[in-house]
């Protein structure tokens, strides 16, 4: 059974940092793209960042988060993480881990003073 479990969300002040982690189990350990998405009420889910599980460390980021967010992977633990720095109120959203056709349940990130 495939499971993606996010952790690390919470409330943070503008300019602060959070680190999200997604634990991935039940997927055949081939190479695949590991992604983070986010969604706010009334809007479609949008991609935030992506990285390959193995091989190339090529990463991609949405323009809105470039220079502030960093995606990484731990192959041994089969996790992906999203380090979010200099957070802004507009980063407030539910953040989802996504691999192949599977989604986590999401973790809430709220940026507010």
Q: How would you describe the overall organization of this protein?
A:
The protein is globular, with a radius of gyration of 13 Å. The termini are far apart. The strands form 2 sheets. Strands 2, 4, 5, 6, 9, 10 and 11 form a 7-stranded mixed sheet that branches. It is built from no helices and 11 strands. The chain is 0% helix and 52% strand. It is mostly beta strands and 113 residues long. A hairpin with a 6-residue loop joins β4 and β5.
Query: If helices are DSSP runs of H or I spanning 4 or more residues, what is the number of helices?
Result: 0
User: In one word, what is the shape?
Assistant: globular
Order of helices and strands: EEEEEEEEEEE
Largest sheet: 7 strands, mixed
The rounded distance between the terminal residues' Cα atoms is 40 Å
Structural class: mainly beta
- Unreliable residue runs: none
Q: How confident overall, as mean pLDDT?
A: 93
Number of strands: 11
Measured on Cα atoms, how large is the radius of gyration?
13 Å
Tell me what portion of residues adopts beta-strand conformation. over 45%
Question: What is the helix fraction of residues, given as a range?
Answer: under 10%
């Amino acid at each position: 059974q495939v499971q993606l479990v996010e952790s690390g969300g919470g409330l943070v002040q503008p300019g602060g940092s959070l680190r999200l982690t997604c634990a991935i189990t039940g997927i055949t350990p081939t190479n695949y793209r590991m992604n983070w998405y986010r969604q706010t009420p009334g809007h479609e889910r949008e991609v935030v960042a992506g990285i390959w599980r193995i091989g190339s460390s090529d990463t991609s980021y949405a323009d809105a988060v470039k220079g502030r967010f960093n995606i990484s992977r731990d192959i041994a633990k089969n996790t992906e993480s999203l380090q979010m720095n200099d957070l802004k109120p507009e980063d407030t959203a539910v953040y989802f881990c996504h691999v192949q056709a599977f989604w986590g349940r999401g973790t809430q990130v709220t940026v507010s003073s």
